[in-house]
Write a structure and sequence with these properties.
The chain has about 110 residues and is of the alpha+beta class. It has a single domain, classed as GIY-YIG endonuclease. It has 3 helices and 4 strands. Strand 2 and strand 3 form a beta hairpin. The protein is globular and about 30 Å long.
Length: about 110
């Protein structure tokens, strides 16, 4: 049997689950809270306008912070979450998404 060593640059992040719902209290209440997530908020044109992360047990609360009337309001109509195995994995994925897509409401250079 011939085994080749893994290249450390070939790291693959595994997502556990993905779900897209309406970006309102009812939609947010349908989302799981049991794993860290990377979330994307989409506008009417289905463009990613904001990407963020939330820790286990904080997903619904963090997303509600972005609803109209909240302190960190982000205008959007849909939100998509991807559950991640750890908060470290979520941060790495968020960083990759931000550098690649530069969503309108994310502060650049953060």
């Amino acid at each position: 049997m011939n085994l080749t060593p893994c290249n450390p640059c070939d790291i693959i992040l595994l997502t556990m689950s993905t779900k897209k719902v309406d970006f309102d209290k009812d939609g947010i209440s349908e989302l799981p809270n049991n794993q860290p997530v990377v979330y994307k908020i989409f506008n009417k044109k289905d463009e990613n306008v904001y990407t963020g992360i939330a820790g286990r047990g904080n997903v619904q609360d963090r997303l509600q912070d972005h609803l109209p009337g909240a302190q960190d309001h982000i205008p959007g109509v849909k939100v998509q979450i991807e559950q991640m195995p750890s908060i470290k994995d979520a941060r790495e994925k968020e960083s990759n998404i931000l550098s690649r897509t530069k969503p309108k409401h994310n502060k650049q250079g953060k």
